[in-house]
Design a protein that fits this description.
The protein is an alpha+beta fold. The chain has ten helices and five strands. It has a five-stranded antiparallel beta sheet.
Length: 197
């Protein structure tokens, strides 16, 4: 899972209309590192991305690449996940926890990452609500549902069933990163692009 802060801006508006351009959003944070070619639509995307970065200083740094523990954290936070409900599609009707992980809406049905997953967008108002929600979650709450054998039985990604408390410590650290990310984005009144890859 990767997340990128993104304000309502011309690049986002164009990406909602142009799937070819929108699919490049997964590379937004790499624009400043020289991942640009002279080919279209890359050139058009790079120009729009750089303009967005100039108008919103530090935007490219407000991102989070989340490792393999996203599903474990989702399990600890969501009753739906613990009851083996299907992984939800981004939707305005999702709970704040599910929006935090999967996004608020699909940017465009044809906007997909290079490996075929849809790109989601969470609106700035929802980002603020998510930041408030995550702030209220304590380590005790996370510990309450940490049960590796049960997690393995529910096919939580990369859980073998014999993990100890050290695994929970790593999950808690990932949770703190997620919480901090949403807090920083909320302060800027920006939305969040989400890519599962």
């Amino acid at each position: 899972m990767t997340y990128q802060a993104m304000p309502e801006c011309p690049l986002l508006q164009r990406s909602r209309q142009d799937p070819e351009l929108g699919s490049l959003l997964e590379f937004f944070s790499s624009i400043e590192r020289g991942a640009i070619t002279s080919e279209q639509p890359w050139l058009s995307f790079a120009e729009a991305a750089q303009q967005t970065i100039q108008q919103h200083p530090g935007l490219e740094t407000r991102c989070l690449a989340w490792g393999r523990r996203w599903d474990a954290l989702y399990y600890l936070l969501s009753e739906n996940r613990r009851q083996d409900q299907p992984q939800p599609e981004p939707s305005p009707d999702l709970s704040l926890i599910e929006k935090a992980i999967f996004g608020g809406t699909i940017l465009h049905p044809q906007v997909k990452t290079t490996i075929g997953f849809r790109i989601s967008y969470t609106l700035p108002d929802d980002v603020g609500a998510i930041a408030d929600c995550l702030t209220g979650i304590t380590p005790v709450l996370l510990h309450q549902h940490f049960d590796p054998p049960a997690m393995r039985q529910h096919s939580v990604y990369k859980i073998r069933g014999d993990e100890d408390e050290n695994e929970l410590t790593w999950i808690q650290q990932d949770f703190e990163k997620l919480k901090t990310f949403y807090q920083h984005v909320a302060v800027q009144n920006e939305g969040v692009l989400g890519c599962l890859g």
